Amino acid sequence: MPLAIVVGFLLLKVQHLGIPNPIQKDAKDLETFTPLKIPLPPAHYQQMLKCLRLPLHAVELTTFLGPLFWYRYVLLEDDDPHLQMVFGKHDSRKKTGTRGWELILSYSFKRRETTGFVKWTPTADIVECLSNLRDCVLDICHPLLIPSIIMSDLVATSDEVKQREARTSIRQLEKAISVNDDTTGFYYSKDGTIDLRTVASDLTEHHRRILHRPPKLYSQVIDALEAATDCFWAHIDPTDKTKALDRLHATLKDRFHCHRVSFITAEIAQKDAKLNLKIAGDQRKIAHASKSDSQAMKALSLLGAAFLPGTFIASIFSMSFFDFQTQAHVSSKIWIYFAFMVPLTTAVLLGWLFWDHKRRRLQHLTRSSSNNSGSDTEKAIMFEISKRA
C-alpha cells in the first residue's frame, strides 16, 4: 500500500501579543489539493470559515494553477471591516502526492486581530516559514507578515540555492564530458565511456529546476501583495499606526520591492533567452533558404554549361533551328556541328565539375584550419588557467 501523506492543518488566532491557539495536525488525504476539495466535512468547514470570518471564496480558489495571492476589503455584519486574504499553491504534484500549501487569513480592523487557517504537506515549502513565525511574535500585528515570510523564503532562499546547486551540477557535467579531464569517479562514466543518455536526462532536470518558478506569475503575486499592504495601511485607524508598526510596514514594502526587482530581472533574462532562441531559429531558416538558393544557382549554372557551348557553335555556323521553305533539307555536313559541339560541351562540363570540386575542397580546408586554430587557442587558454590555479 502506498504511504499516505500526512497533511497538517494549522488553526491560528493571531493577536499582536502572541499565538494562543493550539495546532491541529495529522490529517491524511492524498487528494487534499485537488480542485474543489476541502479538508473537513462541508458543515464543519463552513462553520470554521464563518466562526473565523474567513472568505468563502477560498473554496472557489482551489481550482487555480500556480501561485496565487487574493485579497479583498469587506465590511462584515456588526460594522466590522476585514481584510481577507488567500495565499497558496495547489498544482505542485509529485508521484506520491502533492507539495501544495494554502493559507487563508482574515484581519479585523476593529478587534486588531488576525484569524487564519493553514494547510500543508510535510514536503511543502512553507513548513519552516510557519515554524519561524514564533520568532516574530512582537511583529505579528501586521497581517501581511506571514505572507511576507513565506514569499521571502520561497524567493530569496530556495531559488538561489537551486541556482547554485544547478551550477555545481552543470560544472560536474562539463568536467565529466570534457576530453581533457579524467572522467573516472563520475556516475556518467562506465569503463571510460560516457553515458550520454544520463547526461541528457540530468541536463533536462537542471533546466526544469531553474525554470520551475516562472517569473511572470510571481511578479503578479508581488503586485497583489503590495496592493494588499497598501489597502491595510489605508484603512487602519491612524491611532494604531505606532512607530513599530510603521517601521514594519516600511520593511515589508522594501522587501516586496526587492522581490519585484528580482523577478523583473529574471523575466528579462527569460525573455532574452527566448529571443536568442527565436534568433537561432530564424538563422536556421535563413541558412536553409540560402542553401536552397545556392542549389538552384548551381543547377542553373550546370544547365548553362550543358547548353551554351552548342548554342555558341550554332551561332558561329549560322545554323537556323527551323526552315519552312518547301525545298528544305538537312545538310550532309551536320556532323561538323556535332564534331565541334560535343568535345566543347564535354570540356566545359569537366572544367565546371573540376572547379566546383576544387572550391569545395578549399572551403573544407578553411573550416578545418579554423576549427583547429580555435581548439589550439582554447587548449592554450586552459593550460594558462591551470598553471595560474
SSE blueprint and pairings:
Blueprint: E1 6-15, E2 24-28, H1 42-52, H2 57-60, E3 67-76, E4 80-89, E5 93-94, E6 97-98, E7 101-108, E8 113-120, H3 127-131, H4 145-177, E9 189-190, E10 193-194, H5 196-210, H6 215-235, H7 243-316, H8 334-388
Antiparallel strand pairs: 1-2, 1-8, 3-4, 4-7, 5-6, 7-8, 9-10
Helix pairs in contact: 4-5, 4-7, 6-7, 7-8
Verbal overview:
The model is unreliable at 1-27 (pLDDT under 50). This protein is an alpha+beta fold and 389 residues long. The protein contains 8 helices and 10 strands. Strand 1 and strand 2 (24-28) form a beta hairpin. Among the domains are: 1-138, no CATH class; 160-207, no CATH class; 332-389. The longest helix has 74 residues, at 243-316. Strands 2-1-8-7-4-3 form a 6-stranded antiparallel sheet, covered by helices on one side. This is CorA-like Mg2+ transporter. It comes from Colletotrichum melonis. One of its GO terms (cellular component) is membrane. It is found in: Membrane. Residues 1-18 form the signal peptide.
Task: Please bin the fraction of helical residues.
Answer: 55-70%
Question: How is the largest sheet built, in terms of strand order?
Answer: 2-1-8-7-4-3
Number of strands: 10
> What is the subunit organization of this protein?
single chain
Short description:
This protein is α+β, with helices and mostly antiparallel strands.
